[in-house]
Amino acid sequence: MGKVKASEAVVKLLENWGIDHIYGIPGDSIDSMVEALRKEESKIKFYTVRHEEVASLAAAAYSKLTGKIGVSLAIGGPGAIHLLNGMYDAKMDHVPMLVLVGHIPARLTGTDYFQEVDTVELFKDVAVYNKKITSAESFPVVVNQAIRTAYQERGVAVLSIPDDIAMGEISDNAPQLSTVFEKKVPGLVQNDLNNAVALINSASNPVILAGVGAKNAKKELRAFSERISAPVAVTLPGKGAISDDHPNFIGNIGKIGTKPAYEAMKNSDLLIMIGTDYPYAAYLPEGAKCVQIDIDPIKIGKRYSVTVGVVGDAAEAIAYLNDHVTPVNERPFLKTCQSKMATWWKWMDEDQEKKQTPIAPEALMSAIESISEDDTIYSVDVGTSTVWSTRYLKVSEKQDFIVSAWLGTMGCGLPGAIAAKQAFPDRQAIAISGDGAFAMVMQDFVTAVHYKLPIIVVILNNKQLAFIKYEQQSAGQLKYAVDFGDIDYAKFAEACGGKGFRVEKYDDLQPALEQAKASNVPVILDVVVDVDAAPLPGKIVMDEAKGYARFTAKSIAENHKLEKMPPMKTVVRRFL
Ligand code: FAD
User: Is the torsion defined by CA of 226, 229, 234, 239 positive or negative?
Assistant: First the structure.
């Protein structure tokens, strides 16, 4: 009977699970795992990043895009701590992630050794599976359990691995561990389906709210909306569940959403929630009936008073409804929504036609769209870039749109694009970030260069934390601590070995984007955008309007330059 190192057995197991990547940084307490990856000439490609946060954010993005487990690795202590942000992104956006972190040798645990951090304690809140490996024999078995749990619970499984244990030897003829995983999907309950059908048939103003959980059911969702002639609004991460140019699409809901979506909600008598845990109740109908479809029973009725809950997979549930609801060919409510939406798109088009310098973010989105491909993956960052991308970028069902939706962490754009290009080398990957967000992870542009991942990073450079400035103003405060010095990100791109374009004038925008598209290397487009562009909500609430009034008064009273606000006419016409 031969012997094999536990770490080598684990590498084989990861391969058997179909894992093709690990994002991370090697180091002493995790060296045995890394050595096993090298020695086994594994099919798993190791992507060495420059900061562990990028490793875990990339792993989360990989999982959002593929549905498969994303994997990141780091040493214990500081490396493990750096991973936390991306781990929370996976936890909060409910995607499976496996995290392998090193640990000081088992025999030294508790001795206040160098870099000794109790990682099991550290990861308690973030993980659905969180164990320290205690023996070489159990190591592969525990890894196998970790992966299964991450898939089933759609969360983070983390293993703290003392390096001396990973190096330990185990028998090479241990029974092979099964990598078959049968995800538990709740079966549909006939009675609930019947009740849902009855409710849908009796509604006059039904509105569909599709979340990220409806993205596996795009075809069914489209057919459903067409069959019952109902408008479809989407949540932020649900963008792309139905194409933005579908005639029944009424835009996003919420602060970053559209006025027609807000009004459709307020005039609806039946809300049909599909795969969404949308949290902002103020944007939902008041007192309408509700059908909610969700794979997770805990989510039924969590945010809105539900009349009929359907627990199950969105694709299956909608397919049933499509076969059983009475078709509606003409619905006045949909017609009204469509006419409002036509006006909304006209306004958006007007915004996007601003051929001004400094460049309007709205026009930038239109230019990005012009170089996009049928199946482009957009990795959108957090900040005003979220608002501009969500509102102005038309995304189709074939494209992908990912963002850190619940954690809302800045810096997710670049790691998401890296993961997108690694997972789908033939698809165009575009990151859209503000300069504040990009600067949080910018060191890892060099990772894209090193691994020849030809991504396009578009930076909306306004030398400030514009979203925070906007928040300060709408709270009636004056702008404070939100300005940055200028960085020439195009020069930075070149210093990293990629391509860079600094775009300061509107006329240079389109040519630069076209060159970026044509270059087969990682590119940064550093676009100097209008610092005064305000990311106004689709519907201003009274508190915000009052906040602006206070900000204006304060600006004048304290003799500050009043920052340019959009003409009041526009605000009134579009948003109130
Ligand atoms: P989740 O909360 O992840 O819910 C998905 C649901 O789908 C879950 O309940 C899950 O159980 C279910 N599900 C999964 N798979 C299936 C399946 N196969 N079948 C059926 N069900 C399934 N969001 C907005 O919508 N509007 C805003 O204005 C807005 N502003 C934001 C601004 C910023 C700067 C940021 C960072 C975020 C913003 N968000 C906004 C995002 C917001 O925080 C929430 O993350 C988002 O609204 C939740 O969207 P969701 O319900 O689609 O996703």
Answer: positive
